[in-house]
Amino acid sequence: MAEQDDITQESGGITIAFTHHGQQYDYDMDPEATVADLAAEIEATLFIAAANQKLMVPKLGMLKGPNFGDRPITDLQDKKITLLGTSSAELKSMVSASQDAKSCEARLASQRRRQPKALSSRDPKRAQEDNTYTFMTLRPLPNLPHPERSLAFLERLKNDPGIRTAMRAHKFSVGLLTEMDPTQYTESNHEGTTRILGLNRNRGEVIELRLRTDAYDGYRNYKVIRNTLCHELAHNVHGDHDKNFWDLCHQIEREVARADWKSGGRSVGDAEYYEPEPSEEIAYDHGGWTGGEFVLGGGNAQAAGGATASSNALSRREIIARATEERIKKQKQAESSEEANDSR
After folding, report:
1. Domain count within the chain
2. pLDDT tens, position by position, 226-239
3. How does pLDDT run across 109-125, given as a tens digit for each residue?
4. For residue 140, which of 132, 150, 183, 245 is within the disulfide window of CB 3.0 to 4.6 Å?
5. What residues are labeled active site?
6. Can you tell which superkingdom this protein's organism belongs to (predicted)?
7. How far is CA 31 from the centre of its chain?
8. CB-based contacts of 236: which residues, under 8 Å, 6+ apart?
């Protein structure tokens, strides 16, 4: 690495580093080059069209392609840059998955049309709200095994009585509910591995959920994923994890639990929360709102007096763990009280 640095210095070049989808890339550039030249290099190597590139640069804000102008590349030197953009291969995969999902929806619609229609007293207004405040498109990842299973999981979430009730109550409309790639948004350190369970992009334009286990061959606990979805729906209103966000998040969780008639809507005290087992992840998006998408280890690091992303994430994990312990304690106390009353 030292030899490479020496070569770079001797040649008079500079290194521009940025991250994309959690991976870091280093580009050696001529000091006389422009940001447009860097965009061309990215297009040639990562196959992300310059028109689709967005560079998040501290103090400079978001630089959007293809109109990078003649800004010198030296403006980006020694800055922590995040590249937002979708490669041509990813776009092709998304189009293919969308076509598969539409074909599946068409088959289901055809089957429904063939079924005899029963008399219904359903409220027309309620039916209109269900069609408006919902997930417009469901999309599994077509490159993973058995995408039809992921589509069925997403359909279960969409049709969940509790989720539908919360969507109507808060007038939430989500453009795309899709599956997260299990290999992405995972961070390992000396404390263990943190896996982001959900992402909300552009306040409800796209919600991604980590449905599968790391081995791809299984799916995570339904209630954990459903609570992750409640968490991400709250980000339709609040970007930061402040008090207003958590109040809304827990309100949505309670509404979903009460309206879930399939599970009986059982509650403990005045609230019901799903308590993950110690072996289950309890991180949701684990970050903050940045440039239209959640970034691993993000959040209000700079606003919090310049704290680093890792230390900010650690404090959140501690808060979540303590809150979980307190709720488990209250639940056990409530259950003990119920057992005492039953024994009388």
Report:
1. 2
2. 999 999 999 999 98
3. 777 777 665 545 566 77
4. 150
5. 232
6. Eukaryota
7. 37
8. 170, 172, 174, 200, 203, 204
17 bridge partner residues: 26
- Domain match, 68 and 140 both: no
142 with 44, same domain: the answer is: no
> Is residue 41 included in any domain, yes or no?
yes
Instruction: Say if residues 65 and 34 touch (Cβ distance below 8 Å).
Output: no
Is residue 166 a part of any domain in this protein? yes
Largest CA distance in the chain: 86
Mean pLDDT of all residues in the chain?
Answer: 75
Contact 82, 290 (CB under 8 A): yes
> 195 and 210 in contact (C-beta within 8 Å)?
yes
Residue carrying the six token digits 């409530």: 334
Give domain status of residue 117, yes or no. no
d(CA 155, CA 138): 7
**Cα–Cα distance measured from residue 51 to residue 84, given in angstroms and rounded to the nearest whole number:** 11
> In the numeric block, which tokens belong to residue 167?
């969507």
Domain membership flag for residue 113? no
Which of 156, 299, 193, 157 lies closest to 239 in space, CA to CA? 299
Which amino acid belongs to residue 278?
Answer: P
